[in-house]
Amino acid sequence: MNRLNPRIHQFHQPLQAPLGNKTKTKTDTSFQKVLNETQTLKISKHAEKRLKQRNIEIEENKWNEISNKMAEAKSKGVTDSLVITNQAAFVVSTNNNTVVTALGREEAASQIFTNINGTIVLDD
C-alpha cells in the first residue's frame, strides 16, 4: 500500500546579498520614456484609409486626449472601446493602443457597434 509522506519539506532559498553591497545599474531608458512609448496611439491602415475617405481631421491635442482616455479605460479592464467625439466615432483596441476604424459622427449615429466593452465620450 502506497502512503503519502506527512512530513513538510523545506524549500531552500538562496542567500540574499547584504544591503550594503547593492550596486545600481544604469539603464538607457527612463520610466517616463517607457511609459510614453507604451501609450503611443497607433492608427491601423484601415482606420487611416477611413479617415482620409471620410475627410476626418483630428488635431494632435485631441489624439492625445483620446490616447489618455484609452489608457484610463484599459486600467479599468476595457479592451475594446467606442470613442465618440463631436467630429467622429472610433473603434479602438486599448490592448494594443490602436484605432481600428473611424466613422464620421453623423454616420455613426445610425450604426450598431458590436464587440465593445466600453465607451469613451469626449466633448469639445
How many helices? Answer: 4
Give me the count of strands. Answer: 5
pLDDT averaged residue by residue: 81
Pattern of helices and strands: HEHHEEEHE
Shape: globular
Tell me the Rg in angstroms: 24 Å
Content of β-strand:
15-25%
Major sheet: 5 strands, mixed
Structural class: alpha/beta
Task: Write up this protein.
There is one protein chain. With 124 residues, this protein is α/β, with parallel strands linked by helices. The protein is 30% helix and 19% strand. The protein has helices at 31-38, 45-53, 60-75, 105-108; strands at 42-43, 80-84, 88-93, 98-104, 118-121. The longest helix has 16 residues, at 60-75. It is globular and about 30 Å long. The chain starts with 30 loop residues before the first helix and ends with a strand.
Structure in a nutshell:
By secondary structure, this protein is α/β, with parallel strands linked by helices. The chain contains 4 helices and 5 strands; from the N terminus they run αβααβββαβ. The protein is globular.
Keywords:
alpha/beta, 4 helices, 30% helix
Helices and strands in order:
Elements: H1 31-38, E1 42-43, H2 45-53, H3 60-75, E2 80-84, E3 88-93, E4 98-104, H4 105-108, E5 118-121
